[in-house]
Amino acid sequence: MIRLTINGKDLELRKQETILDAVRSAGFDVPTLCFDERLDPIGSCRLCSVEVEGESHPLIACRTPVSDGMKIKTDSPSIEAFRRTLLRWEAQKISISSYLGEPDKELHQLLRAHDLQPSGKRRRDKKLDISHPLIRVDMSQCIDCLRCVHICNEVQGQFVWHVLDRGTDMHIVPDSGTTLGTSSCVGCGACVDTCPTGALTDRSETNGSSISRWTRTTCAYCGVGCELEVGIAAGRVARARPVIASPVSKGHLCSKGRYGFSFNHASDRQERPLAKVGRTWTKLSWDAALDRCATEFQRISATHGPDALAVLGSARATNEENYLAQKFARVVLGTNNVDCCARVCHTPSAAALKTMLGAGAATNSFNDIEAANTIFVFGANPLENHPVVGARIRQHVLKSGAQLIVADPRLTELAEAASLHLRLRPGTNIPLLNALANVIVTDGLVDHQFVRDRVAEWDEFGVFIKDWTPERAEKICGVPADSIRQAARLYATAKPSISFHGLGLTEHTQGTEGVMALINLALITGNLGKPGTGINPLRGQNNVQGAAQMGCDPSTLTGSVAIDERRALFESVWNAPLPRSRGHNLMAMMDEAAAGRLKAMWIIGYDVLPTLANVSATRRAFRNLEFVVVQDLFITNTAKVAANIFLPAASVFEKDGTFMNAERRVQRVRKAIEPPGEARADWRIICALAERMGHGSRFRYDSSPDIWNEIREVWPEAAGMTYERMEQQGLQWPCRSQDDPGTEILHKSEFGRGPRAALRRIEFQPSPEQVSDEFPFLLSTGRNLYQFNSGTMTMRTANRKLRPVDVLDICAADAERLKVKDGRPVRLRSRYGSVRMKAHVTSTVGPGELFATFHDRRIDLNRVTGPFRDNIVQAPEYKVTAVCVTPLEKTAVAATKSQP
Ligand SMILES: Nc1nc2c(c(=O)[nH]1)N[C@H]1C(S)=C(S)[C@@H](COP(=O)(O)OP(=O)(O)OC[C@H]3O[C@@H](n4cnc5c(=O)[nH]c(N)nc54)[C@H](O)[C@@H]3O)O[C@H]1N2
Ligand SMILES: Nc1nc2c(c(=O)[nH]1)N[C@H]1C(S)=C(S)[C@@H](COP(=O)(O)OP(=O)(O)OC[C@H]3O[C@@H](n4cnc5c(=O)[nH]c(N)nc54)[C@H](O)[C@@H]3O)O[C@H]1N2
Ligand SMILES: [Mo]
After folding, report:
1. In terms of domains, do 14 and 132 share one?
2. Which residues does the chain have with pLDDT short of 50?
3. Which atom of ligand 2 is nearest to the CA of 612?
């Protein structure tokens, strides 16, 4: 116990803390300038200095620990005068225009509070740098507090800002030595967020208009679930900034969360319902649009039966909206034909986790990153696709010396930071994972206690795995046997070991089995049910976990239970019978459409046509449909080609609700502005159509919490998660009652299915997609930091300047052999189709391997990807396609067509 007094007030502290923390917890305040709670104390500005009895000089509060008996004064006349002197000195560096233009910056606020006028003129030796599309650099306003340097190093781990010279010559420069635009900056904006002056500011289009209010909400991009505040100016989203108290993002964001909001006010944002006749769209009233949908759905159902209709929920919309989408399919249409884009990414993970462990979701939380000694990243690229989690992983490795193993055919940025990079051939996950298990077993590294208590089919597994020697695997996957041994030993002994996996594991013909083989490793090493362990799919979109969990899946209802398991409960709450016929998943829907049996689809927030593999097959399927409704913010490619009716939806900023992130955390989404024109929240549209179709009484809700409360009724594992409780912070299911704190770690003492989980014996079945003389390369497809999936949203933001176009990554040796030049056009051809794009010569891909992103509608990469699917849940095999590459003349590239 430490006893001290602050300004005469007695205080008892249980733990060692800094004077600043003690002062603030006692309810006093001292101004700070270089301090940021996300960072280790810098202690350079001295503004937080306080008087301590017996000390000859003031002490710097942010970096001095308290000690027993301290007598602290924060507000004596001499210390106030000292601070004023410091501030007056800083004021001389600040220009009036910057002071007025950026009123929220910390130093500017302090100057206002102390009635000090800035007197600095822009220093002429510092040039304004606007080379970066998102961040404006004006080092004439820099006060050398070093916060930008520290936050880039300590939070993002990018090390962009460097300090040159010392003393009065000190200045801060990007790692390029010249401009930020040419540096290694990833546009996360952390430096802008922490900068207390106008030295680093956002280059948002609306800069200049002042923010009238801030609304706290959850990011609408990936499954990490960062919390942010959006600033509203003149009724538009004008800024975003991180929420420090967020349990996931802890005051950090990536370039999409922080800067990717301007799509919301794009000029082609749709505001009225539309009908398409031939190639022309005509405006409709909501009444007419909903009437048309109701009439067509009823006509098709009467002629072909309810299973000729299907609904796709949206991984971008809220839980409440997805709940209603599947309820609509089942109650109003009378079909289980309902799915969402979880099908194409992590349904394999959900299926494997559910089958083996009893819950189809991540076993642990992002807070387990910092508890782990070994982190195994398998087929995922989190520094680009889940950047805040990627940064947390890299920081933990850098700071604590934890081991990092990355299994990826490409040299990703995270792989560069890894202790071991298992650079396997695409499509060979099973041999690698089996060989890792083999080493763990043969080297005697198994957690026998865990296996005895909690694992089944151990003997059979032992016999099976004997044959999977590292030498055998090396021949197939190309990873040296010694590296496999090293990785296995790390994972099994440098515990606790956590794994994060991505689409490099799931989007294969053996995707589900791949995840099962990864779960085997956790089971035999006891890396489950404890802090710093587990199997954690890095879920894709903001609410893809939620969309499927809500029941946008043909075979499961809300809470991810099989239909027959809770049929009675749902029938009583919904006051309607549930359909008896088995529903089709998205891929089967495409087959059914191709076969002429599926006739109509309602597609909510999902650009299916360009993003499913093998575009020509998808086009054929769509051609057979009689009636398609697309509900989105924009006229998507699917809408252009296939929709009869377009319904304009409200965006994430324009409605209330909840999203569920990759660690089962349900977080609030809050309305900040009104939808444009006549656009409506998805849930309102669904309710209105249900009413038209005679089910008004079953879809009568006043608000999103109303819907959520019904969800709590049908999903007992979420019964304790009320809107009131989630107001402060999200909750992780299971959370069964109001006093249940929620669940950070699943399977602590038991698995969802019982005390034991059975190991799986997975044989390797190579994909039918193999290279040949004609198609000698393996193409893998994926993502880039600055763009998101179909590009519908990010291509309408300034991120487009950072990543304007998809390119084909090829290694130097292959490029030279094929006479392909960096930046020059090539034709990429597979057995299914071809595209033209520019080559990008890089060492991130190995010989015989290619990589491309699929964000650019002018290129339409999925014309090349193939028809094969996961053998259990049918996710497309996006990760391997045999292709050939030929150089083209520059003029042949279709670069003239305009992008949204
Ligand atoms: N910036 C950005 N972020 C996103 C998205 C986006 O479009 N842009 N999309 C979101 C969505 S929907 C999703 S699902 C997630 C996806 O996030 P990730 O799972 O990280 O997705 P990918 O980039 O498709 O693939 C991950 C890695 O798998 C590797 N890989 C390819 N083949 C194999 C293989 O055979 N074995 C192994 N071990 N690895 C292989 C690739 O080289 C790639 O680095 O990202 C989400 N976040
Ligand atoms: N080659 C290749 N292709 C792939 C993949 C790959 O790795 N390689 N990955 C696949 C994966 S994992 C995925 S998830 C898919 C992604 O499939 P996409 O369709 O590309 O998904 P998104 O771009 O995330 O967004 C879908 C739509 O939701 C809309 N939207 C956003 N918010 C709302 C809302 O509140 N309401 C409504 N109604 N609409 C909204 C957006 O405008 C956008 O049009 O792509 C798949 N395609
Ligand atoms: Mo995804």
Report:
1. no
2. 891-900
3. 47
